[in-house]
Amino acid sequence: MRSNMTSSHKIGLVSYAVAEHHNELLLYVNGGFSLYIQNFKKMGDPAVWDGEWHAICTTWRSSDGVWQLYADGVLKGGGSGFNVGGKVRSGGAWILGQDQDIVAGGFDANQAFVGELSKVNLWDRVLSPAEIGADWAAFCDLHGNVIDWDTTNIELFGETSRAEYQCVCSVDIVFVVDLSWSIGMVQFEVARQFILDFVRCFGNQDVNIGVITYDCVPRTFIGLGTYALGDAGLLGAIQGLMYSGGLSRTSLAIRHMTATSNFRDEALRAAVVLTDGNAQSNVNGQITGDYAFEANEARSADIALYSVAIGNPILVNDVALKAICGESDRVFDTDNACEVANRILKDLCG
Questions:
Q1: Residue 257 contacts residue 271 (beta carbons within 8 Å)
Q2: Is the pTM of this model over 0.85?
């Protein structure tokens, strides 16, 4: 939800009414959040009325009346003994943004929600704290088994409109750039431009960029978190990449990336390896065994791998590029950086 209202307003957020009771299930705001299941329980008043996106999650268990209120993945209130043994009856009507006083009606304009709602889901079980999680962006990946926001037909009434919502997703992406002799100066400049174009593809996403370069020795050129995504210093640092030449130790570079990148605990992880796939000891296209081993080690650390072919097209080792990323559809060329950026976000963030 996102709104500039205040909790002092009377607001019907999510309302479910049946013929027997108009507050069969209701998430209501009046000096804080209250959960109604025929009766009601005032749960708490977290600071979520600031015009920014926030995730609200409430839980209730009939057997012992245990209830909880989470805001942005953090527990804000809880207790027990609320409506023990109660049931929610079927056959009613769901309304977002208004409180029903009769089934599908009896609205009060003074109780209308003014703002935006998204990802409204309902389960027939209590979610665990791990499922709710401290990373509230995880709500974008959840799908209720009673109401699933992504598959439920939502009808619009009154002064409402529909727009596409982009979930906030925290991603750390490290480029691993081959500077060896087989790449050459011209193709190195293509690779550098690819990275510059790549970082321009993102809007307001929470994305950190790092760069590791390698020939026979891997080196961290830009550490994750050194620059914010929109910081002009990031583009300047990328433009400062210099070609070296030398032998190619791709497997060692992948190992260095896995061990030293300092990915954020809360962020999803990806690495993009820009190389022709030719190993130090073999320029004839026969890959060495440690490509797959080091790539598997990276994937075991929850790092999604992607390959981008650079260098002389005649010398590019497609088998090695596939071995690095594990799937042929994660091998790209340098023609469209935003295609790669969008693919990473789709794979990781959904």
A1: yes
A2: no
